[in-house]
Specification:
Elements: H1 3-29, H2 39-63, H3 72-93, H4 98-118
Helix pairs in contact: 1-2, 1-3, 1-4, 2-3, 3-4
Bound molecules: protoporphyrin IX containing FE.
């Protein structure tokens, strides 16, 4: 598989992940609670997004021969990915933080893009 193939899958994964997180965060910002119709569906979409970011992301690392020890930007993106995975629980548990978490999701995305473009 070409690096381009992995990059396309990776970016589709980013879209799916933020689509799910945006919907969930907005649901809680609008006063929604942790139990709602289609919750399972929303979590499945989130999980698919997480996998589509992770697996092609590592495929890309291999294709681009970015080996161990990983540069800072790879670690930073991995931390962003982990946070984007765990934040669903926080969004649904800490509904009083809904407004802040809505922007934390955006900030995590911006941080990941900054890292991959600047590669510090
Ligand atoms: C498991 C964590 C992740 C890994 C291992 C990973 C790995 C990679 C790699 C190796 C590239 C190609 C870099 C290059 O072409 O030089 C890339 C591109 C990219 N990644 Fe990730 N990534 C991860 C998570 C994320 C997350 C959470 C986002 C969310 C915004 C993201 C957004 C992007 C974008 C936008 C590009 C395209 C950059 C470009 O073509 O200019 N990645 N990623």
């Amino acid at each position: 598989m070409s690096p381009q193939f992995y990059l396309i899958l990776h970016l589709v994964g980013v879209i799916v992940l933020f689509y799910a997180l945006g919907g969930l965060a907005l649901h809680v910002v609008n006063g929604g609670t942790r139990e709602f119709p289609k919750r399972r569906w929303m979590m499945i979409i989130h999980g698919i997004g997480m996998m589509l970011v992770f697996i092609p992301g590592f495929g890309l690392l291999a294709k681009l021969e970015i080996t161990w020890p990983w540069p800072f930007w790879v670690w930073g993106k991995l931390v962003a990915w982990l946070c984007l995975g765990l934040i669903t629980r926080v969004i649904l548990k800490k509904t009083e933080w809904a407004n802040i978490l809505f922007f934390v999701v955006l900030a995590l995305g911006a941080w990941a893009v900054l890292l991959v473009e600047l590669k510090p």
